[in-house]
């Protein structure tokens, strides 16, 4: 069992409203737009993990499933304040090809975060 570095109530995604239960149609469309624009999604996700280190640590290191989903949801929250529910609804409106592309982008960001070839670019190491 891993030890949490801080309580979930202090993670950046939680503090920014990741789990709010209400959202707008505009936040769903903005989420779909971000997730289907692979270049923008890549840049936003990279920036988000730099600025939300505690949430990234917990969700990328300690979760063994759902890491791509968290990257998408947290990126949409970071970019345009869409809670997780709006991003899940947006995901359901995407084609299979768009979902595959978004997952590949999330995997690329995860790889960098985990110490891939360009980790120094992501974190300035």
Would you write up a description of this structure?
- The protein has 125 residues and is mostly helical.
- It has one domain (22-118).
- It contains eight helices and no strands.
- It has helices at 12-15, 25-36, 38-51, 53-61, 67-80, 84-92, 96-113, 119-123.
- It is globular and about 35 Å long.
Structural class: mainly alpha
Regions with little confidence, pLDDT below 50 for 5+ residues? 117-121
**Percent range of helical residues:** 55-70%
Could you give a short account of the major beta sheet?
none
Which percent range describes the beta-strand content?
under 5%
Over the alpha carbons, how many angstroms does the gyration radius reach? 14 Å
Order of helix and strand elements from N to C terminus: HHHHHHHH
In angstroms, what separates the terminal alpha carbons? 29 Å
**Assembly annotation:** single chain
Our count of helices gives 8
Mean pLDDT: 90
**Count of folded domains:** 1
Shape: globular
How many beta-strand segments?
A: 0
Features:
125 residues; mainly alpha; 0% strand
Produce the secondary structure layout.
Blueprint: H1 12-15, H2 25-36, H3 38-51, H4 53-61, H5 67-80, H6 84-92, H7 96-113, H8 119-123
Helix pairs in contact: 2-5, 2-6, 3-5, 3-7, 5-6, 5-7
In a nutshell, what does this entry contain?
This protein has 125 residues and is mainly α. The chain has helices at 12-15, 25-36, 38-51, 53-61, 67-80, 84-92, 96-113, 119-123.
